[in-house]
Amino acid sequence: MSDIEKDYFEEITYRDALRLAMHDEMNENKNVIIMGEDVAKYGGAYGATKGLLDIFGENRVIDTPISEPSIIGASVGAAMTGLKPIAELMYVDFFGMSLDQIANQAAKIRYMFGGQTSVPMVLRAQGGTGRSGGAQHSQSLESWIMHIPGLYLVMPSKPCDAYHLLRKSIQLDDPVVFLEHKMLYNSKGSLDKKNIDAEFGKASIRLEGNDITIISYSRMVNIAEEAAIELKKSNINAEVIDLRSLNPLDKENIIKSVKKNKRALVVSEGHYTSSVASEITSIIFEHCFGDLLKPVIRYTAEDTPVPVAPNLEKESIPSMENIVNFSKKLME
Amino acid sequence: MLKKLSKKDYLKMYQCMLEIRRFEERAAQLYGMGHIGGFCHLYIGQEAVVVGILMTINNKDSVVTTYRDHGHMIARGLDPKKIMAELTGRTTGYSKGKGGSMHMFSKENNFFGGHGIVGAQVPIGTGIAFTLKYQKSKNICRTYIGDGAMNNGQVFESFNLASLWKLPVLYIIENNQYGMGTSVSRASAGSDLYKRGEAFHIPGEIVDGMNVFKVREAAYKAGNYVRKGNGPYILEVKTYRYRGHSMSDPAKYRSKKELDSYKTKDPIQIAHDEIIKKKVATLKDLEKINSEVISKVKDAAEYALKSPFPQEDDLYEDVYI
Ligand SMILES: Cc1ncc(C[n+]2csc(CCOP(=O)(O)OP(=O)(O)O)c2C)c(N)n1
Ligand SMILES: [Mg+2]
Fold it and tell me: What is the dihedral of CA A296, A298, A299, A300, to 10 degrees?
């Protein structure tokens, strides 16, 4: 990491932005530690912690055995007693291995013990399709986390948000689940360390438009933006909202935009049923029912496990073409 | 008593190990060409483990293993065409192209899967053994475990159940020295992973996994113990993977010297030399086996690449929605 000293990057990858965020927090706070499988010597399965071992040493960047419940549980214990652990789960699919520590321990401790202690830790993990990883390595399980009170949930789509929101997550005094997407690590964007546009809990309006509101988060924001550009050719101006965090959820901006445009499409890579998209859709119906010209469309991954065959994998998740089609349908 | 090896046995072991190696080399090529995506965990270097064990095992026995499963399927005599088809995501593959490299399955052959979640196959194998006991079957379940997975809590819960209920399960730790980039010494407290069964009164031993003959002998003894209703047994088979953890791993965490030292103990070479030394077969015989294996693997690749991808509607098959 030769660019450590720089404050402004014309172009930086999502991966490097994350790495820089962890670096800068570790530099400022000696209680920040990183632990997870192959995070130190190997540099993380997706390379997000590469180089940090050399800078901060093995007391602070720690390779663990393949023991997910204990990685999270030990982070909870350390967090309750003054440290700021960043625990990495290699895949969100491994929530399955560690959900007790996430949902029953980390999320509950502050409340259940009358506010005497808190669990200031960050759980980083990555999910999503795109690499033929199959049913056990491609899921989008954010709705599991969103369902549990007591957990922040952050899912940035752009490098600059990845940087600022990860730093902010580390500074918070409660557990944060910070979810990356495996297809975003190589994506690029600018980063200004000094210009903190990414206010925690605020959505970002990526594109303004007066015809239809497309609400999304994580990788799907990029696909929605492509669709919005395509829609311009048909004279449809879509407003693309990037939620950035799901808890807190910026209801205010969702409602404001939908009330303005009266047509809404919610796009997510999670499943259709009982999902983040279901939640946003019901918020829109609750608050904008009288304004809507058409029922909201919820466009998500299919309610099937993720298959390996590349054609089926692609078919199982939302596509740019169908975002365009659904938008046109809303405009009819 | 363990039967003396016949010429046929010797050649079968040699052929099988070679077939795994050539198959995996071909898989690596297809991966490089973009025909295989996602994960692809090669078995090169570890061939003697599964082949030695299968020499003593009844085909009605069950097995569960990890994502590093292509070699296991070949050793089990399953069709390399359908294995390669699965690797390339084709509908003719063992899991209809939906499982891929990590998730091969053949119910008719009691092959209960390659499993992608580290450690998850261990309770499952234990449950399969439960069925076998419940049905008063004479068969056993082989349950493979990586060294890295030996730090996974559910493994110990399974050991406890299996010993408590005297289940017919043979746990085989494939200790290839690394779990991804982390060596056993950096991940596991204490030495000798099989000893972790001692607390549950499960006997076990270490086996030289580079030598197929030694694996066979140990597997015979262990298998007998389990088959007689004594409960579980643990074999810790010491082996080494020559390639990275999966195709995306350049394996920078270990030295070339270390890798080369294992290559001097290559399991296929050891079998080769033994066969020649004992005059079981000639160099020419072995060369012939090699060419047969090469053409079999070539056919498998051709079959796979000619096979169709699944159809759109297949997405909704085999799931309740
Ligand atoms: C629960 C879980 N944690 C982590 C992983 C990621 N992962 C896949 S394989 C692997 C290493 C496993 O090593 P080992 O058990 O020694 O088996 P080997 O790959 O050497 O055959 C890891 C960490 C996973 N698939 N599942
Ligand atoms: Mg291993």
Answer: 170
Q: Are strands B182-183 and B178-179 parallel, antiparallel or unpaired?
A: antiparallel
> In this prediction, what percent of chain A has a pLDDT beyond 90?
97
Indicate the number of domains in chain B.
1
Q: Which CATH number fits domain A204-331: 1.10.3720.10, 1.10.40.30, 3.40.640.10, 3.40.50.920?
A: 3.40.50.920
Torsions phi, psi for A171 (to 5 deg): -80, -20
A312 touches chain B (CB under 8 A): yes
CA dihedral B290, B295, B301, B303 (to 10 degrees): -140
- A242 forms beta bridges with A204, A216
Q: Which CATH architecture has domain A9-192?
A: 3-Layer(aba) Sandwich (3.40)
* Ligand 1, CB within 6 Å, residue ranges: A 37, 66, 68, 90, 94, 97; B 66, 68, 116-118, 146-149, 174, 176, 178-180, 245
A128 at B interface, C-beta within 8 A: no
> C-alpha A223: how far from its chain's center?
15
The pTM for the full model equals 0.97
Closest-CA residue in chain A for B321?
A303
How far apart CA B279 and CA B274 sit, in angstroms, is 8
In whole angstroms, give the CA distance from residue A122 to residue A151.
Answer: 10
Instruction: Print the domain residue range for B169.
Output: 7-298
pLDDT, one tens digit per residue, over A226-268 is 999 999 999 999 999 999 999 999 999 999 999 999 999 999 9
DSSP-assigned beta bridge partners for residue B171: B143, B234
Q: How far is A325 from chain B (nearest CA, A)?
A: 19
The answer to whether residue B299 scores a pLDDT higher than 90 is yes
- CATH number, position B251: 3.40.50.970
Residue from B101, B118, B150 to probe the interface with A (highest A Cβ count within 10 Å): B118
Instruction: Report the atom number in ligand 1 closest to the C-alpha of B176.
Output: 20
- A308 interface with B at CB cutoff 8 Å: yes
Q: Do A308 and B182 count as a contact with CB atoms less than 8 A apart?
A: no
Give the tokens for residue A3: 């660019």
E-strand ranges in A53-135 read 61-63, 84-89, 122-127
Rounded to two decimals, the ipTM of the complex is 0.96
Pocket of ligand 1, candidates B180, B182, B249: which has the most ligand atoms within 8 Å of its Cβ, to mutate?
Answer: B180
